[in-house]
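Each letter names a residue; the fold follows as tokens. Both lines appear below:
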Amino acid sequence: MEFSNYLKYFEEILLLPEPLPPYDNPAYLDYTRLNWSRMNRWLKHGVLLPEVEKAMAGIQEPRHWIIITEPWCGDAAHSVPFIERMAALNPLVTTSYELRDSPPFLIEKYLTGSSKSIPKLIIRNAAGEDLATWGPRPADCQVLYQQLIDEKADFETVKTALQQWYNKDHGQKQQQELLPLISL
């Protein structure tokens, strides 16, 4: 689906009088509402690095970026807006969005270890060949996440720590990690 359709899908989840699973869980739905707010904040106020803008302008051949995500994903709320804003800088770059938990289950080909972690960005050339993948979160954030998991931190602690990391970083590390992949 195109980004506009993903946004529509996301918003419809929040507007349903009787949400469908997993959004019928009030905690899940509240977290998804937060993700909607966070994503829209980065879409409006996220700043792209000048070197990223230059690299995007330098793309000379068609690229297709596939983003595997879900509205409930907190990491996606912080990462997807930067991916979409980057792609919008060059008409040779198209994006499409695949839901992790719906057919065709593309995530099965792009596991993180044995996990279906998202978001996941797949960069393909015009022939449909994979050039690179990125995700589910910037490396420094992944280190923090793994440390918290190893310490057996509860979900609330993990969620809060990652949120603070993303708020402090402002999308900088993600963009720096994507920079060498843009030119492939």
